[in-house]
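User: Some background: our group keeps a shared notebook of sequences we're curious about, and every so often someone picks one and asks for a predicted structure to add to the entry. Today it's my turn. The entry only has the sequence so far, pasted here. Could you supply the structure so I can complete it?
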Amino acid sequence: MIEKMIEKNNELRDKLTPENKKYYEKILLYTRFKGLFGDDELIETVLLNMLYDLIDAQESGISAEDYFGRKPKQYLDELFKEMPQVPLSKKLSIFYMVFGISSGFSLFSTLTQKNPSINILTIILNGLLSILLVFSVFKYLEKMTFKVSKQSKILEYIGTFVIGGLLTVGFIGSVMIGNKFLSLPVPLYVSMVVIVLIMIVVSYYIIKRKNKPYYSYLIFGWGITFFTTVSRLPQTQKWFESEPVMIGSIIVILLSSFLTARFSQKAILNEDK
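Assistant: Of course. Here's the predicted structure to add to the notebook entry:
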């Protein structure tokens, strides 16, 4: 049901004029960001009804700005206040999903070290960090949606880059802390096999749920999988330990984190959460 509404929304948006489409897509982004813990079906229903209304207004020669006003954020905030409260179990399900995905990547991170291991403390720390990160990203993007100045756009890009960098630093830090406690060593080649299996399971889960905003993270994850596997092979290990390659690798990872966050944001325009 939700998927059909999203497909219909994508189809009908093409009927809007460029100005109206740009205006409506800001409404769409803000609603989906703010509705992170809301009822997906209700949110998509509201978005689709607003789109139908806008198309009718457009046919009557009324612009989106004239129809919804110059401050749509206030209108949407009032609309959210009227929506029914979502059960706590529904809200927590998102945290469970994020924690589960994070646990897979956390296990992945400890297994990709030079001396691979399984570390329970790292998994817990990364899980909590990921929950905080997801909540912060959605709140930040929600706040920036209706910012239209060049300065705000620059701040949006800087903020996205900082968030991506903090994610990378946070994961590295949790691994360093976790290595000091409850660390169980794992043979190198066993760790490589486990890493690939983790990526397969996580990829299957995300693709099955059609969580397109997470597709860019899968590409990032598979890229890291390939990189870490090659870097730990006896034939290439010394080359990857050289200072220029290490610096270059850090730069590539940070840029990849930034691009991953940006692609994820754009995917929300055409996909449910």
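Suggested note for the entry: The two ends are 14 Å apart (CA to CA). The chain has a mean pLDDT of 78.
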